[in-house]
What does this fold into?
Amino acid sequence: MSSGGAVGEGIGARAQRKEDARHLRGRGRFVGDIHMPGLREVAFLRSPIAHAKILSKTKSPDHAVDTFFSDDLVGVAPIVTRSSIPGYKVSQYPILATDKVRFVGEPIAMCVAKSRAIAEDLIEQVEIGYDELPAVASCAGGRRDNAELLHPEWGDNLFLETFFDSGVDEVIARAPISVELEMSCARQTMHPMEGKGVLAWWDDRADQLVVHTSTQVPHLIRAGLAECLGIAQAQIRVAPPDVGGGFGYKCLLQPEEVAVAWLAATFKKPFRWTEDRREHLVAGANARQHEYHIKAYADTQGRLLALDAEVSVDTGAYSVWPFTACLEAAQAGGNLPGPYRLAAYRCRTYSVATNKPPFAPYRGVARPGVCFAMEQVIDAIAQKVDREAWEVRRDNLVPASAMPYTNITNKHYDSGDYPEALVAAKNMIGLEAFRAGPRRDDRGRYLGIGFASFTEQSAHGTKVFASWGLPLVPGFDQAHVKLTPDGALEIAAGIHTIGQGLETTLAQIAHEQTRVPLKHIRVTLGDTAMTPFSTGAYASRGIVMSGGAVSRAAEVVAGRIKSIAAHLLQVEPAAVGFAEGRIFAANASVSYEDIGRAWYLRPDQLPETVNTAGLEATEGYKPDVDTGVFSYATHAVRLAVDAETGLVEILDYAIVEDCGRMVNPMIVEGQTYGGAAQGIGTALFEESPYDDNAQPLASTLLDYILPGPTELPSFRIDHRETLSPYSAHGIKGVGEGGAIAPPAAIVNAINDALSPLNAAIRQVPASPRRIREAIRRARPS
Ligand code: MCN
Ligand code: SMO
It folds into this structure.
């Protein structure tokens, strides 16, 4: 296993995570841990009905002052997520429902009290009169001619419809081979360990609203709160404490967040809401539910000629802020061709409004669905031309000789050897030996191997965000680096730490430039009052963007350190170097403290030749290309399927991945394992079904199955390190990749196992019931 030439504590080192020192001792501080005098807790009354007119709202006379309806929220605007994409329709997402509810769980009223339990009791005393409307419970239901309209002013239930056609008809007409597949992924919830939480208070001294919210995007949340509350951004400080996982869910500006901020700004007291697990399950934003209808055309060897696809996404009732309801479908259309060469492509996408909670990007953003669909297409083609699936995959992958490669949807693949990673994964999983062995194990279970290859676009550039038409999401990052008077280094960056390890890896990058020991580097993230602007921690952009900014700022500071050291050592700056925690020229050296002291405390002794700009710098960063940088991987899985029970057991799981230069290989592995665990949840377990009235059927963790250690295999991982030509240090993002491939690899392996029965499953989760049904369908009647 290559581990990136670990040098000391810099880029490539398996440095221990700085943040773990507090988390392992239980000294982290999350929204729920904050104590404040006079703090009042908030509970929400949520709609029990998916679609209804509200006829009446009645407060309990005893608790009227502690109960709030939409009319009480004077001056508050609904959440409106704008996009300049042609044809996109805007929804008005009320903070508290006005005259209609559009999903089960939509907030209608809030109550405040000394404790959450009392606030929940007050909620019980509020009465709402409903006039139930027909509910839209599926994409097909939403697109029916006479469908009930969620937003009647639209004239239909489509947030957006897109169409792309490079011209496929001619290619299709002469293609010798075709396959046609319908596939779907279930609706899911996202389950960060810590639910969403927000505590807001008014800082009288600063005359400022302070919002401690569990978020991935503090600077964006400030803009959103300012918009909804009508308060200037400078009068809002978003100061997220520790965040116990985000996974995309905590990018959203939630109505509850606006409501709690409004309470604090209005009453000048502290208020808090923390989401409980049931609220997350039935009222929190959803993810993953895609439906695919794909016709693929190939030559007799299985070389792809054309794809003709239709993708529908069940996007729920309102657009999430800041990404809209349409990011998933748009991303699905753009990413479907995956890591393959493809000359002809047609794709229609539909983002359908339904009476369900809003739909949000979740680790992998559309790509788990896209990979699931595309990789099944590759396997189906291989079956049709009677070749091994990995061979057909290899022949279709963009080869290293074609890099950099711009594909049919204008994705610019920067570097890497995709076929090599596939072949390595095939060897790791032992395909040849497996094919030479029995198809069933000694318990009679069917055995199979499946592959999935993908690219992970990370660190999308400013032009990508501009092309998505999102006015409040710029896509660049800044960081500040400062040497203190006693020779330590402080990093301040607006990106936030959500568990992914940036406190450590940003410090490693600063160490790479300055050689200040890691233990003397302090990292402050996220607080809008203390850090420069960041677009936020999502889209696996953190280490490329914020890391790039830290690298530049640290490089500037390193130059100034050298300039002062040169003066102290009486040499030219070019003769100065860093080593062993000191600054050297020939045999003489000074310490970082000497530098700090010289600059801050004895400036009178420094000559004009020393750079006078100080020992701190703020730098911004965006990579040299705007489409981002592309990591890639192949996952390979070997598993057993019990045809009687439908149970799947994963026997071996191998990953070959390449995220460019690894800043910290241990963290890259942790990221990949964590993502893959979530991907296995998507593949085998997690599902949030709704009935025909759009009632959620999974409201506890007994109905919604999350994988735990007993459901997960020991992942085996091998790294490649192809540097990106476009990013600082050649780094590419990795935070989502692990979650992208498991549904595809696992379903391909199940279908390989079931091939003797002629059965195939086309849905995830591949639950025992679905597998038994697939086998039953395949039986000749
Ligand atoms: N890394 C590295 N070398 C690389 C690439 C990444 O050492 N070549 C490290 C980074 O330094 C960072 C981590 O891997 O510590 C993830 O980096 P990156 O890929 O830049 O992702 P972000 O910092 O932007 O984090 C967001 C990303 C996303 S989009 C989701 S979703 C996700 C993820 O990270 N959510 C997470 N990983 C998560 N991990 C945890 N524990 N919790 C979440 O909510
Ligand atoms: S879903 Mo990750 O926050 O892009």
User: Anything to note?
Assistant: Residues 34-133+191-282 form a domain with the Aldehyde Oxidoreductase; domain 3 fold (CATH 3.90.1170.50). DSSP finds 20 helices and 29 strands in the chain. Confidence is low (pLDDT under 50) at residues 1-6.
